[in-house]
Amino acid sequence: MNVAEVIRRAIEIGERNGKITFAELNRLCDSRELDPQDIERIFNALSEAGIWIEGD
Description:
Layout: H1 3-17, E1 19-21, H2 22-29, H3 36-48, E2 52-54
Parallel strand pairs: 1-2
Helix pairs in contact: 1-2, 1-3
């Protein structure tokens, strides 16, 4: 799964639940090595969508 797909699915989860947890993000990214720019893109997209990231 590429970063754009991770972002799309993370936003879907966040919109459904009103938030996303770090555990859910880890599951989405599990099979992929992310560089710092990828992580920043994911966090920025979630922030722009108004989705909170919560600890487990």
